Structures
1.
Amino acid sequence: MCVCVCVCVQSGPASLPAEDISTNSNGPKQDSLFDDDPEDLFAEATEEVSLDSPERDVLLSDGPSPAITPITPPCSLITPHIDMFTHCSFDEIEEEEGGDSFDMHISVSDPEKVGDGMNAYMAYKVSTKTSMSLFRSQDFSVKRRFSDFLGLHSKLASKYLHIGYIVPPAPEKSIVGMTKVKVGKEDQSSNEFVEKRRSALERYLMRTVKHPTLLKDPDVLQFLESSELPRAVSTQALSSAGILRMVNKAAEAVNKMTIKMNESDAWFEEKQQHFDNLDLQLRKLHASVESLVCHRRELSVNTALFAKSAAMLGNSEDHTALSRALSQLAEVEEKIDQLHQDQANADFYCFSELLGDYVRLITAVKGVFDHRMKTWQKWQDGQILLQKKREAEAKLQFNNKPEKLQQAKDEMRELEGKVQQGERDFELISKTIRKEVSRFEKERVKDFKTIIIKYLESLVQTQQKQKVKNIIIIIFSISY
Amino acid sequence: RASIQEDGLLTLPRAVNVDLQTDATLQVDISDALSERDKVKFTVHTKSTLPNFKQNEFSVVRQHEEFIWLHDSFVENEEYAGYIIPPAPPRPDFDASREKLQKLGEGEGSMTKEEFTKMKQELEAEYLAIFKKTVAMHEVFLCRVAAHPVLRKDLNFHVFLEYNQDLSVRGKNKKEKLEDFFKNVVKSADGVLVAGVKDVDDFFEHEKTFLLEYHNRVKDASAKSDRMIRSHKNAADDINRIASSLYTLGTQDSTDLCKLVKVSVAALQKIESRVAADEDLKLADLLKYYLRESQAAKDLLYRRSRALVDYENANKALDKARAKNRDVLQAETSQQLCCHKFEKISESAKQELIDFKTRRVAAFRKNLVELAELELKHAKVTMTSSVYPSLCL
């Protein structure tokens, strides 16, 4: 018995336009979440078959065969192997900042092992393409190693963190990963490690240069342009963990503050709360996504194993038609299911990396808030000291000790200057943080949007593949 | 060819659809089931025009141990040595599900209300699915017996169906379980010996080779599909956690990102969170069932080989007796009995094995088609209808 069953499928993936959104960063914005937009952006991709209401529990219908119309399958079922790591680099993004359009693209590529044994290291090629006048040329590249990146970060952190700039953290050090590479183990996990690191370094540099102030920093320029770079020393302290420790120390100092900061600015209080919440949520999400990536990989492996087993079963089956059907099921499982799973996993892997980046970034943000508190503390301490000195001066005047009086007056003048400076510092850091936070939020939203859109796009594509798979199953199973 | 209809109470399609001949003279189904603390009570409903029964339609309540008792009584009955005894239904196992529900209850404080209700719903659905599956397995067993021309007439079966008191069947105690264990050891050792002997009859020789290989491969496929489903379930659990995290994040965010996040959450749950319940389980249940059936078929072949060996031994004994001219009559009777037994088994076994193949092919075909249909239905329900319209930024 041979019955041909076809389902009408419109091919062609739908690409979602990434619209630019303007956000007011201060304060919540009331959003009407359930806009009834009649315009269906994906009219091309809808099916002609009538749709049931979305139900979770799927029940079998009585009729066995779906609608019958000629079929136009997509041209290639088997797309080339998905390289999940290259997915993670962001596309060029246009950004308007103070009239000077941001046009810069950095890529980190060509990891090369230099040296042998335990002194070996990976050298990466850092290529910059830009039309900005800041640079000597438009297209140039240099060779850098991992500790150079850490060195750059530490310099930037020491210069900018304490005045309120959110300096993007560098990628994590990994002793296990690096040792495998040094030892010369050329297997998949060490290749994965290098690729992961390369991708992370690229994201780090892009984030750093997207920051308008950091971009102009001479250390950054030197890092990108000069062919020779002084070797960064004591990278122990320069690792992310080291910076984290520094930030934690600031937090500790805040906790030890005897005078609770009188937060006159509700904005800061609200933002602090917001970032605390965000931190928790992102960590949780990150853990779940990492777990998903891991389980998905398992699933991929197990699907392959099952496919082989089903093929074997098909081989031993007596009945020829059934045997063929089972073998075809196995083949379908192997090819299409595998691809589907690998693709989906690649997307989640990118998401996982991005989340990791943001967990670290938020730590930096919280650190900046703590620095502001420290600055306030310093200012307050200065004021208290000034007050004490004033009282001491009054006493001296009363006791009529002219030499000491003059000294006290001098000290007081100096202190007054310091206190004024402290107030100015505090105001400056508050202003900087406001600006930084607004920029950070904008970037964050953009990054997440990009990733989610990419994910949804790939979902559409895998849906097409899934439909084709189903059709194949129906055709062969009915025709025996 | 009629397939067995289900009562409206159990609306989920049965995991394994076994195509069987039924007629009005005897129809059996499980019309209801109740899950109590640690046991399940099945309501076995019979409709029959046979004169053996007092009424035309009646129901009794049975528990799992009583099914096992019935199955074992078939296995131990010499008269049925030449038939494939329908495999016993597996014990209802809610332990894993119950444990998960308990853990959920304990961890209630650590998660948000939405998360908790969602997880609870998931676990309850899982519990329900396992429950329906065990009912289906028990029902299939009864239906197979009812459809078998010889077994349906069995007296124990009629008692099982009709006697509306507790059958007072206790589970095997330790001693009996140990006896069973040794019996199995002897059987498998024997089986190896017997398998080594080449059968004179081509048909049986071919069946033996086939069944051995088939059984092993079904076992392997079943195990691998279980692993695949477990991975799938783990991934689905992760996805649920991710969805709820994204939801919380989305509600905190006051930008358009919120809408996008909500959409992707919906997509996640509709498409990705597709638990292995429907399609993979269908395949897995099918494989498990045929693992048990092929074992039952192997057992049949074993019994036949055993009978053959007994027959040959009886022949040798007869020759010896004739040579010594002692106890000839006894040896002759013994030989005749063995011969008769062996021939009877061979004859029915042949038919049984042919039927087994027909059933198997039909069941696989039906299940594979249903599998594909379910997948198609799933695909239709997802992206286009719900996700795209709400994707307006």
Note: Chain A touches chain B through 86 residues (CB under 8 Å).
2.
Amino acid sequence: MCHTFPALTSDRSSRICSLLYKHGSSMASNSSGSDSSDRQRIAQQRLSVIAGHLQRPVEGNSGILAAECKAQGDKLDVSSERRTVPRRRQEIMKWNGWGYSDSKFLYNKKGQAEFTGKRYRLSGMIIPGLREWMESTFGANLQHKTPAAPILNSSAVQPPTLNEAFLKELKSTGIPFSHDAEDRVFRSHGHCLHEIFALREGKIGRVPDLVVWPNCHNDVVKIVELACKHNVCLMPYGGGTSVSSALECPPEETRSIVSLDTSQMNRILWIDEKNLTAHVEAGIVGQDLERLLNESGYCTGHEPDSMEFSSLGGWVATRASGMKKNIYGNIEDLVVHIKMVTPQGVIEKSCQGPRMSTGPDVHHFIMGSEGTLGVVTEVTMKIRPMPEYQKYGSVVFPNFEMGVACLREVARQRCAPASIRLMDNEQFKFGHALKPQVSSIFTSFLDGLKKFYITKFKGFDPNRLCVATLLFEGDREKVLQHEKQVYDIAAKFGGLAAGEDNGQRGYMLTFVIAYLRVVLGFKYTLVLDICRNVKARIVRECKDKGVQFPPLSTCRVTQTYDAGACVYFYFAFNYRGLSDPVHVYEQVEHAAREEILANGGSLSHHHGVGKLRKEWMRETISSVGMGMLRSVKDYVDPNNIFGNRNLL
Amino acid sequence: TLNKISSSKFDTPSKRDDFEDILEERRNSSDLRYALKCYTPVLYKGLTPCKVSELKQMVLQSDQLGYVITQVSKEKGMTTDEVTGDAAAILEEMAQRLQLSTVRFFAFTLSKVFKTLFRSICVNEEGLQRLQQAIHNHPVVLLPSHRSYMDFLLMSYILYTYDLALPVIAAGMDFMGMKVVGEMLRMSGAFFIRRSFGGDKLYWAVFSEYVKIMLKNGYAPVEFFLEGTRSRTAKSLTPKLGLLNIVMDPFLKGEVFDISLVPVSISYERTLEEALYARELLGVPKPKESTSGLFKARKILSEDYGSIHVYFGQPVSVRSLAESRVNRSQFNLIPRHIPTRPSEEILSFVNDSAYRLVRAQEENMVLKPWVLLAFVLLQKQAAEDKQGTALDEFTEQAVWLRDLSRHYGLSVLTRSAITPEEELLNQAVVILSCVSYRNQALNVFIRPALLASAIHTAASNRKQEIYNGFSFLRNMFSNEFILCPGATVQDFEEACYLLVKTGALQINQQEVLITERGHRTLAFLTSVLDPFLQGYQVVCRFLCEEDCLTEKQFIPAVRKFIIKHLLTGRLRYIEVLSSDLQKNALAALIRLGAVQKIKGYVGFTHLRVPCWFDRLSGYPTLTPMPFKSVVAHL
């Protein structure tokens, strides 16, 4: 008999904000003036003046309208100044690869590997071990490079199929749009290997015919209405970090395809410090969200590996998972309220209560819908005060089995730190190869000493040992206590503490590894067997498909749950001598996925299904399950306006 | 007849590997050294080495067994400790205790026994190489055909010989009755299972867990007989599924990447239990296995059981068998440690796989020609053809059957390991023994035979001319037969008398005439001398072609020469291979001065051989006798 209900009050800026208190509990909070609402108030006033100049149709809640408009210099809406993602993404990002244009791995004149740019801890450093590792692991060497097509050749892009009536009405709304080839190509792909490979070779298939940049929820409502009216296909686009072919334009689509880029909807609309929630526009990318919240002393704690580029709306649409989910939860735990625009209208709950017993949770139709039902425009998320103290750590285990057993025990005792990840031996070696050139003789001496201690004194086999990286967060005392508890458990499984630096490098690796490529994610319960079988299957498939050098086939356990864990598999191979490496890659990946399913893994832990994994949906959720999803789609979007054909 | 059936270029189907006789080396080198050789087999790459006792602990502590123990203790109202005790006792009764020293003991004694019992044990070495690869990559299950008690000892013996990992073998409990031997077998890798334990949950759990743990950990290849028991009739028995189900389980549940199933076909020319089986099938109960019984059975040591062919087939990957047949994700909905009855789908999959494997065993069996002859004989017998069959007809039927069966995919055996020379010598052995029977009566026929040959070659019927021929031959063969020196005339007279007496000849002053009914006698008598004539001819011819030989070189060289000519079909009589004949011929030529021994160094020159050869060649040794009729005389 515990239901929750919200008590509503209005705040000074006439916006509706919800206060929550749990029935019968003492956890009630109120909305008396906080710093942020003062700032908000001032901002709102200034914004409404500017809004008047813009003369845009006002409907519904004026507060929201005010917030969505341009407010240069406004304290809250800092994103327009320090916006990470400009409309023309190609200005700072690679058009045919991962991430920033200025950050990449290359061999310098001396033939040493180097990571360029200034953005990462590794940036500008020379990585002496990488080249040797590349050569010894899969026979990749300098003599065999495949140059990418340097710039986009606009003539290779098909001219847009435009729906003139739609375009005409769109123009009248004043929402920015473009049918420039570069803009369109940029939004035609995610980061699956085959997509990037095609771009590098200058092959361009079906791309969106038009890109629109709505500025706020209401813009989206208008665009969706127009699309329904003129039967135009809409494909929402957030951060573009998909690895499930979700952004690929269905080649059979004959209607005009409009890419709806949410990147300009990137404001935090309000922060409710009493209830610890923030209402945010869905186009905001992870790093901006965290930075802006940090300025107010808060965080969401949602840190997927792609957080530099991926957007809030994308997280919701794919059921994303963050590395620190042990403390903060996955996206489904973080989301309190969602607003989504569908062809049938706007869906949102009437309250911001933390839990409802009102039939199946409609949020769960939205989360994971992958842009097939509508566009997520605004989300209320839980926030937390920024942790007082953060500490990295790492533990070396004699072998992977011991490491897994330790993770299991940590999960059983429910004392997992914010993040705990276990890398297998291959990945440990890779991490080692990515170690930058050491600055002093002393550091290198220490490294040697450590290595000696672990391999000789403790008798760890360098070809079997594996490393767990840890991240603790919280107040200082608790963190230290927690740390001790985890290290004590690790010791029972033969683990040796291996220092903060190793841990930190492990996490940095997460962001940098994307520049080298290829990630798959899965969940499972039988860690050891699945890891062995899937890795073996990858190696065998590569061999069968004629890959000349043994592939890199490696995995890491990135999340622990009470009832299972999440494992990432990485694989890479040298495609020299293969006529169609992408096809080989796809075959191997396909085989690996079948192996995962056969071994009791799930189809996807957090990347979603997209088009890449569609074929396994029926077997994963049963025919009835498919029917349920189908009927939702048929009701919400009978004309398949959101026609990216993901999921079903 | 056998020769005819087996001699054909189709004998070794191309898909089959070649066989290598492992006993040959045993016959030529020390068994003791072999038994003590350095034994370092290739092991499974994922192996975590563990002792026999640790293995038992792993079984007793497994979640699977733990679950059943709790279940059983609830059902029977016992404490879990009691049930665990029962489980430990079952395991104790069952478990193997593989020990290298025992294996070495067996390697030594079996070498002795095998050499006495069998002519050869032929193994396809390529198959063993494949097996080695398979053992390295995945857990391996060996599935030999089962025709004899010998089977599993033989398997281990071969694997030891080739330095391959020794298997653990599922054996029937009845062996345990044999006190010492039972324990010995245990120490050579056998583990014992009850013949029936249908309802006993605990037994099944201990047993299946024990097998799975050994397999998964790559402790050793697991060996068992798909047919469950020895086939008494040499027909394959329908496969039993229990164990196959158990060994496939770790793959289906994703506990290992793959499992290799290796069908092994063991073909006996004659099983040790041959007579025993027949009696058993007729209702005479089989003797209980006992150690003393085994010693009584040692009389079999004095018999010849021919050869054994062991063919290690292509390893079959369970993964590929299950590919697109089994949806493995179904196993993930129930925790792995809870025993579940296999679904219909899985049962039919295991069943199909089992039949495929037994078929693979059958296909690689090596068949001897008598197998086909047995068809013909049995059908004749059933047709109440009591008079027996003419050899020609019999041969004709057998050859027809061979061709027919070849069209049906049968690959008859396997002279492939034997070179034509060896084959020829083998035949010659039989023929020379036969010759030694014939020779006992030769003295009766020799004089008439000399006369008959003389008549046969003489240009006319003139008595003088025939006498000259007789004298020449008598002179020629006086080292070969007992012909009293200087008694040429008496011998001629005697021969004439005897032939006239049997009505073969009529003799007057000047002429010798052959009577109508004498032809048969004369033909027979000429044939008596023919092999010798041919032998002497070939020796002469050999000497014509050779320049200078030492006495020591003579026999091997002339033998080689003769073999060559026999194989090309230019010589008819295999008995000319007899070194006795060759020596006599040489002695005769020396005596006649055609060949000269040179003093000073050992050797001889031969100046006048050609002329002797010419004279001898006057005697055509023809009427080529078809080989099969020689066999017929046997």
Note: DSSP finds 21 helices and 23 strands in chain A.
3.
Amino acid sequence: MEFSELIRTGQAQAELLRGPEAPPLRGTLCVTGHHLLLSPGPQATPDLWLLLLRSVDSIEKRVAGDSGTITLRCKDLRVLQLDIEGVEATLNIARSIEALSSLESVITSFPFFYRPKGLRLGDAWHFHPPERYYKRVARETNAWRLSEANEDFSLCPSYPRAVIVPRAVDDDALARSARFRQGGRFPVLSYHHAPSRTVLLRSSQPLTGPQKRRCAEDEALLRAVLAGSRPGARGFIVDTRSAQTAKQARMTGGGTEAKAAYLGWKRLHRPLERGRPLQESFVHLVEACGDLEQSMDHWLSRLAGCRWLAHVKEALSTACLAAQGMEREGACILVHGAEGTDSTLLVTSLAQLILDPSSRTMAGFQELVEREWIQAGHPFQLRCAHSAFSHAHPKHEAPTFLLFLDCVWQLGRQFPLSLEFGEGMLLALFDHAYASPFGTFLCNSEQERCLCEVRTRTHSLWSGLNQLKEQRKLRNPLYVPNPLALWPSVEPQSLRLWQGLFLRWTRPPEPSEAAWEKVWQIVTDQEKTEGSQPTVSASEPQL
Amino acid sequence: MEHIRTPKVENVRLVDRISSKKAALGTLYLTATHVIFVENAPDTRKETWILHSQISTIEKQATTATGCPLLIRCKNFQLLQLIIPQERDCHDVYLSLVRLARPVKYEELYCFSFNPKLDKEEREQGWMLIDLGEEYRRMGLPNNYWQLSDVNRDYRVCDSYPTDLYVPRSATAHIIVGSSKFRSRRRFPALSYYYRENHASICRSSQPLSGFSARCLEDEQMLQAIRKANPGSDFIYVVDTRPKLNAMANRAAGKGYENEDNYSNIKFQFIGIENIHVMRNSLQKMLEVCELKSPSMSDFLWGLENSGWLRHIKAILDAGIFIAKAVSEEGASVLVHCSDGWDRTAQVCSVASLLLDPHYRTLKGFMVLIEKDWISFGHKFNHRYGNLDGDPKEISPVIDQFIECVWQLMEQFPCAFEFNERFLIHIQHHIYSCQFGNFLCNSQKERQELKIQERTHSSWAHLWKNRADYLNPLFRADHSQTRGALRLPTAPCSFTHKFWSGMYNRFEKGLQPRQSVTDYLMAVKEESQQLEEELAALGERLEKIQKVQLNRTEVKSNKQCEPSKHSGFSTSDNSTANTPQDYSGNVKSFPSRSPSQGDEDSALILTQDNLKSSDPDLSANSDQESGVEDLSCRSPSGGERAPSEDSGKDRDSDEAVFLTA
């Protein structure tokens, strides 16, 4: 397929309005295969304005007289307005953007063409996978092994090639357990908490069905988990559905662990919102945030009505419960919902952030996102196909990953010194998950990424973010390593709307930028004086 | 003290506000000035001090098997629930506190007995710290347009105004006196703030006694004089901060608002801020929301909306913004009034001044602002904050709202203020504490008659002495955004207003961020300063050594000098020490084997706690000092609620067996 077939008008004269805070831009508008360009005129070529077409969420066109207006609502929640000369040009450009921004093919997407200076293809692709994490686990306990039973993705298409499983369970047993779990997602290790010698596991729901089927290997797997933990350890299964929903799932072949079958394991139900209701919550919140004229009362009822903060509260509480079960009760925790690719990952990744100081570093957090979201098979392509502005009826879209980022932001607000990365990192991850020149968030699973050769043909976001020039934007200058668990407050008084994301384009950025600069200045001043001191004392001779 | 029926009750339990199962056993003491609860726990002996003047309500609840519950609500939003074993003791404590919390004469207040061991001279100097005369000179007064008037000498014209007032030069004594007779409580238009850059000014008064048709030539001349004092504009705004309906209702009582037809070149404007009764009820409702046990997110947000509190805060801010823009952008002078001109008018004038003048955003400038627009212009501190026993309908959180407005602005402009949140909280505390004389009485005249300055200490001096605790490390005095008037967004929208849990939930440390950016940055700053000094000293030493060594040949190998690394904030990372809350929402889920496990962590909180304030009351009460609070008690999803697990029907997953096994 040629992009040129989709580009109906090469260029037109246009004016771009970027909201109340930025000055308008005039120039020549141009549509390319992946970008919308606005060149402000021959004399000012460096000030080229560029928009990745992939980041357009919805497009609206209006024509009046001999000109037209296109409103672009982007996946990063920005709203742009283009005033274009010529009715024909407007319609053509709108149609081109519509066609190009909704291309489904992965291998023609921009990451496969993006070749930035200073980065090498293939860099940073191998520095996070489960093998690396297993090395750490192996140092702490030998009850676990790295299994390559899924080498050809036959056991579970949404798992990576290697997973960490109890040493006592062989690959045949894994295969049987996989057949007993939806999508083949048998219980695997997510996190080993060395101080309490307990583990966090994740899986999908067991396929008990209406006949309440059982699977000896699956049961043995969970028994082996307890046996490999500290002596006398109990287990908790945190089901992210309500008891009612879990029970109903039997009708469609799913279900939940029967108590008699899994000795030592106790089940807890913590219903978390997912799928369409979560997407609608996101859409309503963004709608409310776009209405600048509303009264105080109207705003508070809409904030309550969209329930986004309630979802944040529930997600954090459930993650805290799982973390508390390990750290305080010395219990092993298995988390699953239905498919085990959404709310399950939300809970396991947040629990690690609460418990594990190393996941709060810049590198550790990237590793966490890579291991617990990307490698763990969160279907990014389906979930992030559209953001909050799409008029299309949501099919598979859900902002689960955004909910995770919001929870991390809340954690960072309550413990402002304990995360090495700052709000900028979370914003970058949100932007890139929805539309990115990098390949990291492409596809729905490791298997798909292998098929598309993502690793060899696109650049990794991590190598992009780890460039020195990005650090000031992404790092938290206040970071002081904190060896303790972070127990956040989940009371409504303690949770706030993430203004930095939801109001990013509506509030003036200057005040917070000024504050950020100042924080950096204070901290780097200190580093300077600290750095210079030893040089002097080192040159001081002994008398 | 004759009012104390029982000075000491033992075996009293202090109930944790959230989980009623937790209670600390201890002894309750009543003194002349404080209620003190001392816990029995030998390692901590935690003390809780409550000033009598902070007590807002005392409620004796029905006796239960465990004892007699007593609920004490404080004006600084602390809530204390005590259980006293004997009903009679409880009654005695109750009757004593009811009397102690409602003094009938000023002499009973704490400030008359408070003695911070300062000599007479120091005390007098303390009172001279804030000088309004100097403040008006700083504004550039007197000048060609404004002069100091002695018309109110000995409070002859208006007894709730100060004696020293600035009025337009062209306003003669005759005009002023005439105008005062046409204004409620004779509060005639006088200068609140003069904007040097363009001669525009903010003046304040009470409502005119216009009724349905009355007019007053002198009052019209007075407004004209104000207009003429600003050569840059041919009109003035008259801002009535009341809702139009309220203002119209006042006409029937012979009061009301200015008729545009009678005054030349005025633009009249209503800005609907509700009256003190609405505000009192609103706060009450909001505090009820804060007291909810494990509310859901929607319970909280709906409750917050229902209280209307943030709507009122926004109305005050919007009024301030309107005036600041009229002055700075249109160059027009503004006359502000409400009914009596001492509540809403004070709020709005001070918010506008704060927006316009960076001086008021400094520590000292903020004190000056409160002194000018609140204390000197006769805000009725005694009535509003119930220092003496009085009409409960007069009580209203008027200055609390102003303080919150400042906090909302601080959140929006993190670099614009020299002071931090703690400063605001401590000022709020002292407005109610009656520990200092500044906020006593209803007017300057009353304070003078009571000889406040000779008999009490000034809170400004006290706050100034501890100013290091109140600095905002992010303050950038020289930044383009913070110089001059604050640049506000064209459409002030509702999103920017947040619930201030740092104030209204400040005694629940578990709800607050566990690490303080302010304290951390201050420590970093302090340390880099120390290091720089050390560096300079070492540099000097090095120079000396090099001189000495000109004669020596051999330089011995260097020894690494131990750098005083992170002395300032080595503890700050420990401040994260906290214990998990009850996230289970299900009492049975974790039959906890670990109540003791949390204690080592809470001990960390105790030791690292930096006693910021030198003030005994604040250190015992306010948020950053009460480090002994146990954080492990909040139940996020309702401990009372039925367990959400498998509510019985799904027999095969009811796992209570495993718990007991």
Note: Residues 156 and 163 of chain B are 9 Å apart (CA to CA).
